[in-house]
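Q: Please design a sequence for this.
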């Protein structure tokens, strides 16, 4: 590596667009926008509010509030709701068929984010959910350093019973949110290693990241994530049953920690320094996205669409890694602190995101050398071929993908029962209950049809909807590179 040929700038390209996604929550939206004002004041940044409200009164209130905030704070805020969405759809009809635009841009977490991504094409973008308060908090162990930690979990994690206690003991930070993400976002690992402003720790880096640091291969931080205090953002805590390494150590540290994690959704999850990770995990509540080069779309799965997005991004862009910012925002949702009755829902149903994640994980592209557009096209073709199978073969592939994923859960549970695994009795008890529930579900044909696509009548009819979803996904991925490249030029909604 020749440091003289590497960009030594302390920070990367600035974020110039913030996409705020909202739906039927006027009060949280106002709070979120007001928290963003100090972060963008004096900067060349535009805010795009994408509103998926179903209630007309809420849309009208949101429109009025956004206009008032923009005027009083002297900010550029673009508001997009029904009429603007129709204008976007009309403008893009020459690029993409209407049914695919509906699939990609239908109001919801995925459609709202896709709208912001298309309108922010060519820029670094920050995606923010409306129930996020963008005041920054840091832990007392904060260090202004970079840890290239590969596959090792290095964030500080703790579970709490109240939202207030999740923030207690943290320090209010005066750092700007956009600057914090800019430190990593869009940066190559080679440029980070040549930076002499922050110490870069590479002792935990995997081989892939080491090759990026030394310039053997190009590796770029395509996503960055704020730390979190408040609502964990999960509908239930059941994935914690399969926690490993740091998560496992924390959950088996005491019965109180375990019970708190599985009863309350309040959490603190924040790094003490900048982290670069080779993990495809993605949570979009406050996420930086290097949108200067094409990223895939969010598919409209309803839940865990951000998890599917992160996996798809790393599957099609072999240079992509993620980064964690050592500052937490407050996820101040309107949901109660408790999860409610513990029912092992994940063992009783399959969701669209689960299926699509299983499929993308099982995809094996023909070559590793292809660029993101080519790999996205190959993934699209593979999904299209899957959708074109006859009924019996299609059902076999879908059932097989879901069964194989669930078999890995059963294997993990069996390993947890081994004496040397050191799982506490209370954890083994819940794993046993999860296993028994899952075994009952696996005997039911309807379990293999995602709950969002079942019609309540027969698995056969449900599988037809699954086929339709996979085909639409395939067609959208095929046209997405052109849509991403042309949308900014075609659309004028300001």
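A: Design:
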């Amino acid at each position: 590596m020749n440091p003289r040929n590497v960009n030594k700038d302390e920070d990367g390209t600035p974020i110039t667009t913030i996409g705020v996604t909202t739906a039927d929550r006027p009060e949280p939206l106002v709070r979120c926008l007001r928290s963003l004002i100090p972060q963008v004041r004096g900067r060349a940044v535009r805010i795009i509010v994408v509103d998926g409200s179903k209630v007309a009164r809420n849309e009208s209130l949101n429109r009025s509030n956004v206009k008032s905030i923009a005027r009083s704070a002297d900010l550029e805020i673009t508001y997009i709701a029904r009429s603007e969405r129709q204008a976007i759809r009309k403008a893009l009809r020459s690029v993409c068929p209407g049914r695919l635009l509906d699939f990609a841009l239908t109001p919801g977490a995925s459609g709202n984010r896709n709208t912001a991504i298309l309108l922010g094409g060519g820029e670094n973008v920050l995606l923010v959910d409306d129930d996020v308060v963008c005041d920054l908090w840091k832990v007392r162990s904060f260090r202004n350093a970079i840890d290239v930690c590969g596959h090792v979990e290095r964030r500080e994690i703790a579970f709490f019973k109240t939202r207030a206690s999740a923030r207690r003991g943290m320090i209010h930070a005066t750092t700007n949110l956009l600057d914090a993400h800019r430190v990593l976002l869009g940066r190559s690992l080679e440029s980070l290693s040549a930076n002499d402003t922050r110490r870069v720790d590479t002792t935990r880096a995997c081989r892939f990241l080491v090759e990026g640091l030394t310039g053997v291969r190009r590796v770029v931080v395509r996503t960055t994530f704020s730390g979190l205090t408040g609502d964990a953002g999960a509908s239930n805590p059941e994935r914690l049953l399969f926690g490993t390494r740091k998560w496992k150590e924390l959950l088996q540290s005491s019965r109180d920690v375990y019970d708190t994690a599985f009863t309350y959704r309040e959490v603190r999850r924040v790094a003490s320094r900048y982290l670069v990770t080779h993990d495809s995990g993605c949570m979009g509540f406050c996420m930086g996205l290097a949108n200067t080069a094409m990223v895939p779309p969010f598919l409209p799965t309803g839940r865990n669409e951000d998890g599917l997005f992160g996996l798809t991004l790393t599957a099609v862009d072999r240079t992509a890694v993620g980064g964690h910012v050592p500052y937490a925002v407050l996820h101040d949702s309107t949901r109660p602190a408790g999860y409610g009755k513990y029912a092992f829902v994940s063992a009783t149903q399959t969701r669209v995101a689960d299926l699509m994640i299983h499929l993308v994980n099982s995809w094996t592209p023909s070559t590793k050398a292809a660029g993101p557009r080519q790999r996205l096209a190959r993934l699209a073709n593979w999904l299209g071929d899957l959708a074109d199978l006859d009924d019996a073969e299609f059902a076999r592939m879908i059932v097989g993908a879901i069964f194989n994923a669930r078999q890995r859960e059963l294997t993990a549970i069996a390993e947890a029962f081994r004496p040397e695994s050191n799982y506490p009795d209370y954890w083994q008890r819940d794993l046993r209950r999860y296993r028994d529930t899952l075994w009952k579900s696996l005997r039911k044909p309807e379990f293999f049809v995602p709950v969002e696509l079942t019609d309540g009548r027969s698995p056969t009819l449900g599988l037809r909807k699954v086929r339709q979803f996979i085909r639409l996904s395939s067609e959208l991925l095929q046209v997405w590179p052109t849509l991403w490249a042309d949308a900014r030029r075609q659309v004028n909604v300001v």
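Q: Thanks. Anything notable?
A: The mean pLDDT is 93. The two ends are 45 Å apart (CA to CA).
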